[in-house]
Every structure is written in C-alpha cells, then in structure tokens.
Design goal:
It holds the Pfam family HTH_23. The protein has six helices and no strands. The longest helix is centred in the N-terminal third of the chain and has 16 residues. Helix 1 crosses helix 2, helix 3 crosses helix 4 and helix 5 runs antiparallel to helix 6. The protein folds into two domains: about 60 residues, no CATH class; about 55 residues, no CATH class. Helix content is about 55%, strand content about 0%.
Amino acid sequence: MSRSPLRGQEVLDDALRALASATTIEQLRQAQAVVLPPQYGMSLEQTAQATGLSKGWVCRMRNKFITGEAVGDQGKSVHGGRHRENFTPEREAELLKPFLESAGVGGILVVGQIKTPTRSGAGMEDGVVVSVQVAASA
C-alpha cells in the first residue's frame, strides 16, 4: 500500500535520503529525477539527459516517488524464476528421475503416478496440481 503523497521539502528530503542509500541504478535514477530539477535548477530535458532516461520516464519516476512508489520496494521480483516451486531443483530432479527415465525410452508419463510421490515428498494435501513438461531429446 502506498503512503500519502509527499509535498515540497518532504519530497526533496526523502529523495536526498534515497539518493544516498540507493543500491540499484533504478533507485539512483529515480532519486536523481526528483532531486536534480529543484536542487540544481535543471529542466526535465536536462534531467533526462543526465539520468539516461527519456523525459517521459523522468516524469513517471518523479510522480511514482512522490506518491510513495519507490522502485525496488516490491521485494521479490515478479519476472522470471520459479514462483510456485515446491522443491529445490535438485530435489525435483531426484523425484522425477524414474519417470523421466521411462519416458526417455519410449514410456508414457501418467501424471497421476507422478502426483502421489511429489505430494508426499512436499508434504502436501489434495488439491495441488503438479504438472510435468518433458523436453524431447534431440
């Protein structure tokens, strides 16, 4: 949930703190987009050139900061990764190894047979669907 919009000196003070504590380039650029115009009298075009962003992105980043949406606050990234993982990749490979071996020699994968060991291995109850994708060997 975002905090209430900041105004005037509060925004500048928060942006200066964010500038000092920025750990990613996105956080640095967002703080610069807020600090550079009032602190150094730069136009949005000059700020865009200094940050390596377009004028539109500078405006967007400034507005997001003012409304409390600082970049990097989301925690875990929503892009990429295994968001619904139940096992480590090593444990998953260990559980699926017998099934993938039989599929590799022309066997048929039956999901119902795979669900039971994977559920018990994860300590899950009914209602969880496990899907398996087998890549064709080249």
